[in-house]
Design a protein that fits this description.
The complex is a heterodimer of chains A (388) and B (599). In chain A, helix 1 packs across helix 11. Chain A has a nine-stranded mixed sheet with strand order 7-8-6-5-4-3-2-1-9, with helices on both faces. A three-stranded antiparallel sheet of chain A has the order 10-11-12. In chain A, strands 13-15-14 form a three-stranded antiparallel sheet. Chain A contains 15 helices and 15 strands. In chain A, helix 7 links the parallel strand 5 and strand 6. The N terminus of chain A is likely disordered. Chain B is built from 14 helices and 33 strands. The mean pLDDT of chain B is 86. Chain B has an eight-stranded antiparallel sheet, covered by helices on one side. In chain B, helix 1 crosses helix 6 and helix 3 packs parallel to helix 4. The longest helix of chain B is centred in the last third of the chain and has 18 residues. With 599 residues, chain B is α+β, with helices and mostly antiparallel strands. In chain B, strand 27 and strand 28 form a beta hairpin. The chains are: A alpha/beta (388), B alpha+beta (599). At the A-B interface, helix 9, helix 10, strand 10, helix 12 and helix 15 of A face helix 13 of B.
Chain lengths: 388, 599
């Protein structure tokens, strides 16, 4: 990719829209999601629009490389809302020629009905939360859909959209290496151009977390098995033509999620909706923005132009930390020249040499990257590399 | 000055948890020495650590005024002494300052090892002894059995034993009467030259060194000049007084009385416990026999976790040493741990107390290295020296032989646990000296190497006997044995702070246990780490800590960066709590935990 843009744009510029509502809460999910009886769609659109207007005033003349509707379950949004948000963004920012507009969808039949509407609204990429290709496990994961429904949603999505991705969770309760291999091969047979494959992580504050703490979440794979599953996942996807480009993300070359790459490349993005984070490089420095978590607080605040609950200047060392902890997740790694020119930091080469002597990182063409062996132990690498 | 006839001086001897401090509290309360408002539990234990652990470390004193049934008012001076074996020397010197003892035995449990150790000291000091059977309010109380046991095991008459519940107050009046009636009044001559015993001394930040004294002959008044006979140092007396237990000034102290003086003495080290205090002029020339100063027997290294806190550590150690003459220290440099101090203690409890005080009162995180004893090293060239630190052990080829300290350990245990206790002692290279029974309890006496005891013997004993065994020891002297230095190598680098002296026959077993322990204690790294135990150049045990295979956050998108950054900061802070050896981070607790034997 040729970057002819300004420094802050090296990572790109995106818009993240958080839709916080779900039909039900999944036991593994620690995202900001809420289940409510009814939603005032007009009021929500109004608030999103107000937020877009506010941020656009601070970031004039930028080229928007992506929009991402995340959640929650954004496939519960009315297509008209999605369309109006996209239009509003287009009024303020120049859309890149290849702008990527992704919407996260659940594979339930209700949501699939909206797919055509989303396409008409301008969405050009869909990411479906399938999670498992086994009905028992879907129930255990608290999902409301069946494998059948997932397949149908996928076929429909493939017929409508150029780019389709879906998510699976592995290292589930009682899952064997062979069972996961078979499931993954089935998934690849569906012909996605992008897959997000997450190792099940028990997060505090979730239903799984509480069950785990109480000793009632049985049959989780031991670390060695989970690690074997990770490596098998890498090689299976690679063979199928979807190599990893990030710890948990695999894509056909050219089909990587441009929006998510903004995060991993420490680009700029505007984050709107309850609990959305953003990063903005303005004339006087780089800022981290946050919004109120609770929908009932965010909605009126955003509507009246006060959608941001917090804006903190990111000191240089924190920028470097973010660049490392996000950038080393990718296969491409981070550009050491950018680190030096943009942040005035030279990295500790003793540490890099130490880590590269045990084959965990490598430096080639000014790019520092975690090796295939290093990426799964990235937390350990970061503990060494991140400045004190 | 109180008439000698109306003074009684006494101490209380008891095994830990038999209710000594509670009894002292009751005596103070019954005589209204402390108002109810100021009353708190374990009145005489002033340090937090004493209250928390329910133990007495420093001797404490209280003067009680008691109007007895005969209508006379008596002055009762109680010196409360530590019960733990580490502080046996405190007990012995306090005993010399009083004429009688209350022997407190828990009537639900009976005689224990520390009861024995302490009561023998009282007998040695020619005390009149009043047995007290405590905790009679508990259903398990069996006064007849315990009284019989006192007669059988200790050999004193227990027919007049007083039945007490220090908890409910039952028998407290009888105890006070027994003190007046059965304990002898002190002897002394008010007109003779001043002769006072220096019982104890400690540092007070407002008053300087406070000296606890027992007057034998003569009188001491405020403003007089005193001479310490052993050092010949002369001091003007600023204050004299008594403890109620608060410090209360009085005009003079006469024969038989116990009280304190302050005299602008700068350091506790300037006072010698057991010394004789007299007047500068016309003083006595007849010095008291004095006490042997306490000698440290257990040594370990104390290092700051954060090397930058070395000066703070020095400062805290110097301050603590001001008040504790039995605690020794010298600077130590470790290749692994940097700068620290090699410290000498009376025993493991003393070590823990000092370590806790440094961490708590001075807020310094410490790495404590393996406790060691003093070995006598005899070199081939005929020279000899004392080895305080295994890291300093010379090359074996230059050593002719070495000697280690042995102890005589007395253990009382219900006979159902006897087998486990014998096995434990045998495993620790013990030689059985005696085995007798008193009722259903066995008393075993073992000759044991101190180095097998200093570390975790007491913990193991408690665990194999479910806490029913009691233990006490005294030093026996030095004996030759086949001891070698075992080094530990982590990632092929020796960690000097983990070196220990072990018996050749047990080296392999100890080595294997240590490397296995370390394998669990050291977190996995991103590379595999060999952990080895070696004697000289020969590896005797080896484990490999495998490399970390997976440690990465599965999902990390725009909203996760902030949270992930905080997590990383927390992990980095955790890493700072560890010490780096070469490329390996070793958690501070590993230095002690690695040595614990699960035998």
């Amino acid at each position: 990719m040729a970057h002819l843009l300004e420094n802050w744009q090296i990572g790109g510029f995106g818009l993240y829209v958080h839709w916080p509502f779900c039909q039900s809460k999944c036991p593994y999910c620690d995202f900001n999601s809420h289940v409510v009886a009814s939603i005032d769609h007009d009021a929500w659109l109004n608030a999103y629009v107000a937020e877009i207007d506010r941020y656009a005033a601070e970031t004039p003349d930028r080229i928007l490389s992506s929009i991402y509707f995340g959640g929650g379950t954004p496939s519960l949004m009315a297509p008209a809302t999605v369309g109006a948000i996209i239009k509003r963004a287009a009024r303020h920012w120049t859309f890149a020629n290849d702008i990527e507009i992704t919407l996260e969808a659940n594979p339930g039949s209700i949501e699939a009905r909206n797919f055509a509407g989303y396409k008409a609204a301008g969405v050009n990429r869909i990411s479906i939360g399938i999670q498992a290709l086994n009905d028992t496990d879907l129930k255990r994961l608290g999902r409301l859909h069946s494998v059948d429904e997932a397949q149908r949603a996928l076929s429909l999505a493939k017929a409508l959209f150029d780019r389709v991705s879906f998510d699976l969770i592995y290292a589930r309760q009682d899952q064997t290496l062979d069972a996961w291999r078979t499931e993954l091969e089935t998934a690849l047979d569906y012909g996605p151009d992008h897959l997000s494959l997450y190792q099940l992580t028990i997060e505090p504050g979730t239903a799984f977390g509480a069950r785990f703490d109480a000793g009632k979440l049985r049959g989780l794979p031991e670390e060695d098995l989970a690690t074997d599953m990770y490596f098998m996942t890498q090689s299976t996807c690679e063979t199928a033509g979807l190599p990893a480009y990030e710890v948990s993300n695999h894509a056909k070359p050219g089909q990587e999620s441009q929006h998510n790459l903004i995060y991993w490349r420490s680009g700029d993005w505007v984050g709107i909706g309850p609990g959305a984070h953003g990063r903005l490089t303005l004339n006087d420095g780089r800022y981290a923005t946050e919004t109120a978590l609770a929908p009932t607080i965010w909605l009126p605040a955003a509507a009246s132009g006060r959608g941001e609950s917090q804006r903190a200047a990111l000191p240089r060392d924190e920028q470097v930390t973010e660049l490392l902890l996000m950038g080393l997740r990718t296969v491409e790694g981070i550009d050491l020249r950018r680190l030096e020119s943009q942040h005035g930091t030279t990295i500790n080469f003793n540490k890099i040499n130490e880590l590269s002597s045990i084959d965990l990182v490598e430096v080639a063409d000014h790019m520092l990257k975690a090796t295939d062996k290093g990426r799964p132990v990235l937390n350990g690498i970061l503990r060494e590399l991140v400045p004190d | 000055m109180t008439d000698l006839k109306h003074i009684r001086n006494f101490s209380i001897v008891a095994h830990i948890d038999h209710g000594k401090s509670t009894l002292a509290d009751r005596l103070i309360q019954e005589t209204n020495t402390v108002s109810l408002r100021d009353m708190k539990e374990q009145m005489l234990d002033s340090m937090d650590i004493e209250r928390e652990r329910g133990i007495t470390i420093k001797a404490n004193t209280v003067r009680i005024e008691y109007k007895a049934d005969d209508g006379e008012t008596y002055i009762l001076n109680l010196i409360d002494t530590p019960g733990h074996v580490d502080f046996a020397y405190e007990v012995s010197r306090s005993m010399r300052a009083v004429e009688g003892s209350l022997l407190v035995v828990d009537s639900t449990q009976g005689v224990e090892a520390q009861t024995l150790a302490n009561v023998y000291q009282a007998i040695d000091a020619d005390h009149e002894i009043v047995p007290i059977l405590n905790k009679i309010d508990l259903p398990a109380s069996d006064c007849d059995r315990v009284a019989e046991q006192i007669e059988d095991v200790i050999g004193i008459d227990a027919s007049g034993a007083i039945q007490v519940s220090a908890k409910t107050g039952q028998g407290i009046h009888e105890t006070l009467e027994a003190i007046v009636q059965h304990l002898p009044a002190p002897k002394g001559n008010a007109d003779a030259p001043l002769k006072a015993m220096l019982v104890d001394s400690w540092y007070d930040s407002y008053l300087g060194v406070i000296v606890l004294i027992r007057v034998i002959d003569g009188k001491l008044k405020k403003g007089e000049r005193i001479r310490m006979i052993s050092t010949n140092a002369v001091y003007p007396v600023d204050r004299i007084g008594v403890f109620t237990p608060q410090m209360v000034p009085i005009d003079e102290l006469g024969p038989g009385e116990i009280g304190f003086l302050t005299a602008s003495i700068k350091q506790v080290r300037d006072t010698r416990v057991g010394d004789t205090i007299t007047h500068e002029k016309k003083g006595t020339t007849d010095a008291l026999p004095g006490f042997k100063p306490a000698q440290p027997v257990v040594f370990c290294g104390l290092f700051p976790v954060d090397a930058a806190e070395f000066e703070d550590l020095r400062d805290s150690i110097e301050k603590l040493a001001l008040n504790d003459a039995s605690f020794s220290y010298e600077m130590e440099t470790s290749a692994a741990l940097g700068f620290g101090f090699r410290c000498g203690f009376l025993g493991l409890l003393h070590l823990e107390v000092i370590r806790d005080r440094i961490e708590r009162e001075y807020n310094i995180d410490l790495i404590t290295t393996a406790p060691s004893v003093i070995y006598h090293i005899f070199m081939r060239d005929g020279t000899q020296f004392e080895l305080h630190n295994p890291a300093d052990m010379p090359d074996l080829s230059t050593v002719d032989h070495l000697e280690e300290p042995r102890i005589k350990a007395t253990i009382l245990v219900p006979d159902e646990y006897l087998g486990d206790v014998l096995k434990l002692c045998q495993d620790r290279r013990g030689i059985q000296l005696d085995l007798t029974y008193a009722g259903s309890r066995a008393m075993v006496v073992y000759d044991l190497p101190l180095n097998e005891v200093v570390f975790d013997f007491y913990d193991r004993l408690k665990s194999v006997t479910k806490g029913y065994a009691s233990f006490d020891y005294q030093m026996l002297g030095y004996r030759e044995d086949n001891l070698v230095k075992m080094s530990i190598l982590v990632n092929d680098e020796p960690v000097d702070a983990l070196s220990t002296m072990v018996h050749r026959d047990r080296a392999e077993m100890r080595g294997r246990a240590m490397v296995e322990k370390l394998k669990d204690l050291i977190p996995r790294h991103m590379f595999k780490i060999p952990i080895q135990a070696a004697i000289g150049g020969k590896v005797i045990a080896r484990e490999t800590l495998s490399a970390l295979r997976k440690d990465v956050t599965a999902k990390c998108y725009g909203g996760d960066a902030t949270r992930k950054k905080k997590l990383l900061e927390k992990q980095k802070a955790g890493k700072k709590k560890m010490r780096q050896f070469g490329k390996v981070d070793i958690p501070q607790e590993a230095f002690i935990s690695a040595l614990k034997m699960d035998d």
